[in-house]
Amino acid sequence: MPQPRSLLMRATGLLAAGLTATVLLCSPVAQAQAPATAPAPTAAAAPAAAAVPAVKPPLNTYADNPYGLRALWEQGDYVAKITLVLLMIMSIGSWYVLISKLIEQARLSGQAKEAQKAFWKADTVRQGADTLHKQSPFRFIAESALEATRKHDGLIGQVDLNTWVTQSIERAVATVQSRTQDGLAVLATVGSTAPFVGLFGTVWGIYNALVKIGSSGQASIDKVAGPVGEALIMTAIGLAVAVPAVMGYNWLVRRNKVGMDTVRAFGSDLHTVLLAASARRAEGAKVMGTAPPPGA
Known about the structure:
Number of helices: 10
Order of helices and strands: HHHHHHHHHH
Largest sheet: none
Number of strands: 0
Strand content: under 5%
């Protein structure tokens, strides 16, 4: 039978051997050698990493918008397309009138400066009219007044010269004013009707959208928002056409008023000059005992 002391010594040896093995496994040398002995997990992880799908870039919301103007044109019927074309024509016409009238008013302002600079420095009304451009409204008024003084005979001769010249100048001024009003009716018409044309397109689009939704039996938000949103674009387009037309009309009317004030002042001064020249001719003819020559 073994002795208790020998058994104790044998257990102590086994415990020491176990502690030594544990220390060796936890040492840095053992940890450094561990990856070299297990390459298999890395190789196995490579296919898993390759299987991850690539992240797609975000879609272009402007180019791929299914509810924009392009979709409105492609999905709309002939009534919606005619409405869009009509609004486009109204917009082009209003902008053409606006730009052309601004150019015409700028030309009128330059002609007024020319008349103020050259006309009143001439010796006679005829010479002053010849210094102006042929298309100038001021030359048109001057020649109309000269024509009235030359043709003051017959039945017209029974009318006082002052009254006859005044009426001739007023008719010439009214003609100039009528020319300055050309095109403004287009702006007024577009400004007053474009919102209703756009509203008609909206009502028609919503009607078609509701018919499609009712026939399909699907009333979810994605089925309702698209067609109704496309229909509302019509109202926005109508307002975008009407607002510049209304603002342009008011602006042009104001500029026309300023230009016509200059034209009326020119006509009033010309009337005074013609009457003064006629009085001088009559006085000179009375002194000489002859009939006064026509014209100024």
